[in-house]
Amino acid sequence: MVKARKYVVKNYFKGVPKREDFEIVEYDLPPLKDGEILIKTEWISVDPYQRAYNKLSKIPYDQFGLQVGVVKESRNPKFPVGTKVVSHKGWCDYTIAKDGVQASPLDHLYILPDFKGLSPSLAVGALGLIGLTAYAGFLEICKPKAGETVVVTGAAGAVGSLVGQIAKIKGCKVIGFAGSDDKVEWLEKELGFDKALNYKTVDVAKALKEAAPKGVDCYFDNVGGEISSIIINQMNKFGRVSVCGSISSYNEEGSMPKATILQPAIISQNLMIQGFLVSEWRDLMPKVVPELVDWIKSGQLKAAEHVTEGFDNIFNAFVGMLAGENKGKAVVKV
């Protein structure tokens, strides 16, 4: 009998999630049935969508999320003991999974691909759905051309930092917005952004006009809010906007924050604005992951990670990520 621990969400979040909104529950896992495997978790992902989807879930619920683990016991010949696997089983130290059984579009069990020696943790980051979000969300929607100007908000985060680098690989001029001077320096000096701006200290409209005097062609939106309205109102004819998230509003209570209307710019500039869910592009994973691996191995793409250690520290990693403490992907080593 294996004793397992998991985080259970007890409350709907009000503002920033609080420790008392969670309970760590210890329980006995049942014996395996045919087709099932026992997974010992090694890496756990903390992500903005876990905050956004709280209100859409029926409480109490087990905190969902991506994880990487190793098979410790198996009654499925496709997953022998010792196999590294990726799943959406969430914040737990052991779990039972069965191939082909999905509780949600993200609940997909698969064997860790060949990362050519790169860390397995990247399966919940740059070489997993986060990488697919950046790659497909940017390239499939924005369809950038070399020489175009690309703006990324949340540029120092898990997705934004990858989008900016992919845009550089494709020959674009890249401008990123982040929330601290330290992140601005990191984006420019480490990741090669042409310009990075601290949205908390600059006049966004003026600074963007100076950084992109000829206007913006592509905008990858991670944050929403007034900053997005400002950027969209400086876009060129036939500009493309990929809407990935709205983290600026995730901790807001009550009515949604107001922002400058977009319709005049959308109409006059013939803008294309499209939202997406990464699950729509899961079939692209076999094509995308090897390309991302090659970019990382060649040094063209830096897959930055902000690592927290310890199962008991998952909550701290989660709220730290929501507060923007991470540069790159926030992960927890269990």
Note the topology.
Elements: E1 2-9, E2 22-29, E3 36-45, H1 49-52, E4 61-62, E5 67-74, E6 84-87, E7 94-98, E8 110-111, H2 129-142, E9 149-153, H3 158-169, E10 173-178, H4 181-189, E11 195-198, H5 204-211, E12 216-221, H6 225-232, E13 235-243, H7 263-268, E14 272-275, H8 285-298, E15 305-309, H9 314-322, E16 329-333
Helix pairs in contact: 2-3, 2-8
Walk me through the structure:
This protein has 334 residues and is of the alpha/beta class. The protein has two domains: 2-125 and 303-333, Medium-chain alcohol dehydrogenases, catalytic domain (Quinone Oxidoreductase, Chain A, domain 1), CATH 3.90.180.10; 129-276, Rossmann fold (3-Layer(aba) Sandwich), CATH 3.40.50.720. It has helices at residues 49-52, 129-142, 158-169, 181-189, 204-211, 225-232, 263-268, 285-298, 314-322, and strands at residues 2-9, 22-29, 36-45, 61-62, 67-74, 84-87, 94-98, 110-111, 149-153, 173-178, 195-198, 216-221, 235-243, 272-275, 305-309, 329-333. Strands 3, 5, 6, 7, 8, 15 and 16 form a seven-stranded mixed beta sheet that branches. Strands 11-10-9-12-13-14 form a six-stranded parallel beta sheet, sandwiched between helices. A three-stranded antiparallel beta sheet has the order 2-1-4, with no helix packed on it. Helix 4 (181-189) links the parallel strand 10 and strand 11 (195-198). The two termini are 20 Å apart.
